[in-house]
Amino acid sequence: MKSLRLKTHSPEGTIELGSILGSGLKAGDTVLLTGDLGAGKTTFVKGLCLGIGGFHPDRVKSPSFTVVNDYICKIPVRHVDLYRVDDVEDFETIGAFDEDYSSRITVVEWADKGPGLPLSGDLSVSIADPNPDEREFTILADDNLLISLNLKPFSVRN
Amino acid sequence: MKQEILTLGIETSCDETAASVVRGRFEPLSNIVASQTDIHDKYGGIVPELACRRHAELIGSVVGSAIETAKVTLADIDLVAVTRGPGLVGALLVGLSYAKGLAWGRKLPLVGVNHLNGHITAGLVSNPMAPLPALCLLVSGGHTELYTMEAPGALLKIGSTRDDAAGEALDKVARMLGLGYPGGPVIEKMAKGSEARFDLPVALSRKDTLDFSFSGPKTAAKYLIRDLMATGDPLPVEDICASFQKAVIDALEQKTALAAKWRKPKSIIVAGGVACNGPLRERMNLLGERLGVEVVIPPPVLCSDNAVMIAVAGAIEYLNNPEDPAFRDFNSMDADSGWAPSR
């Protein structure tokens, strides 16, 4: 695993960063997202889906209340939100990781909240929002993912 | 067939376990909702945990109580209607399996109902004569969407949130302010008599889309709270609530007005949990008066999740064509967690 720190300065920049990382994901990957209310987790997922391809980012919505949203991207995406899930039994009921999980990409918001299960991600992203016009991304990624993307900190402009 | 059929409705798509008995198409005889509020209270009422595993524990007694309250017996039921989606698959399966077992055992027809169509159909419960086509604003914790309805159940989606649902944004701002759950009712209570003196943006206010966005206003509220806290003065919680509630209602009204202008509906139905909000109801009624269009908003008990809306939507579909073999051949009927009600 390698870690990387990046900043964006607008929702569009966050979507661009997400799409770069999304373009390197493959079926079976798990993405874990953490960050406060309003940090931009769902915006980042819009970018991931744009990068994976075949799905309009406007159709990516917050799953805080619905808990699980499925998107038919080029690789199917299961967008999970643990904002309301505190309990292991509930976690099992929502079907975040069912028998088909290896055929899709699973993205988990509020991955640090949840019922305290040891979730492991191929990509972990934590977002801080020191002020309205700045988002700090701490990215922990599988080595192969970063190599395949040839990702450099300056590749995101906005 | 009897003159007026009795339908048993079952709803377990998300947080509530609900059952009801409805006579004919529109007459509710019972409406039982096992609220999860007590479970939420256990955690201080702040964190809105799910409790979907509770459906299995509750469903038997909730159905029994719906039948008893309606003063009928199981043998009187002619039709079973159950929510088949959208929702959490594990939660949906509890209701669906129960409904299938019941229908199979008693040799009854079964209708799988779309939860969102159910919410909109609640408008027809409060006014079966609502003139169609209707413009439907569905606004809840998980959904904020605009539909047109040509006939009961025939929905076309014309607008949707691009990020947070309105109810979700209200809930999250309530949480930022350290208020209880669910956030919508708390914000409404705090906002009462307070001044909406802080300007929060209405997102996507341009005139070329019927889509909503509540993520921007939510984040703006967060920075407003952060800035006000930094002054060291006591936080004007009531005024923040009034300001945010106004921003949400402004957006809902604006897009509903624009959709009405484009689609020229004969009525406007407002449905879903957030339609319990008093100021929203007031504003939508005023909008209807201004446009000369009848506005239908179900009473609050039919706005939040319930099984009357499921029974009614199921009865309407069944009575359209009672001979349809699909109502008898339900073995392969499956839950559909992402089922869109739109054509």
Structure description:
The complex is a heterodimer of chains A (158) and B (343). A 7-stranded mixed sheet of chain A has the order 1-7-6-2-5-4-3. Chain A is an alpha/beta fold and 158 residues long. Chain A is globular and about 40 Å long. Chain A contains 4 helices and 7 strands; from the N terminus they run βαβαββαβββα. Chain B has 343 residues and is of the alpha/beta class. In chain B, the strands form 2 sheets. Chain B has a 5-stranded mixed sheet, sandwiched between helices. In chain B, helix 2 (54-69) crosses helix 3, helix 5 (166-176) runs parallel beside helix 7 and helix 6 packs across helix 8. The model of chain B is unreliable at 42-48 (pLDDT under 50). Chain A binds chain B through residues 37-38, 42-43, 58-62, 64-70, 83-87, 89-90, 92-95, 131-132, and chain B through 14, 43, 47-53, 86-91, 140-143, 160-165, 167-168, 171-172, 175-176, 211, 215, 218-219, 222-223, 337-338.
Instruction: Give the CATH architecture of chain A.
Output: 3-Layer(aba) Sandwich
CATH topology of the largest domain in chain B: Nucleotidyltransferase, domain 5
Broad shape of chain A: globular
**Hey, which two chains have the biggest interface?**
A-B, 29 and 39 residues
Model regions low in confidence, pLDDT < 50 over at least 5 residues of chain A? none
What strand line-up does the widest sheet of chain B have?
Answer: 3-2-1-4-5
CATH class of chain A: Alpha Beta
CATH superfamily of chain A: P-loop containing nucleotide triphosphate hydrolases
Order of helices and strands of chain B: EEEHHEHEHEEEHHHHEHEHH
Number of strands of chain B: 10
Order of strands across the biggest sheet of chain A?
1-7-6-2-5-4-3
| Termini separation of chain A | 26 Å
- Pattern of helices and strands of chain A: EHEHEEHEEEH
Structural class of the helix and strand makeup of chain B?
A: alpha/beta
CATH topology of chain A: Rossmann fold
Largest sheet of chain B: 5 strands, mixed
Query: Mind telling me which CATH architecture of the largest domain in chain B this is?
Result: 2-Layer Sandwich
Strand content of chain A: 25-35%
Number of helices of chain B: 11
Give the fraction of residues assigned to helices of chain A.
10-25%
Q: How many individual domains of chain B?
A: 2
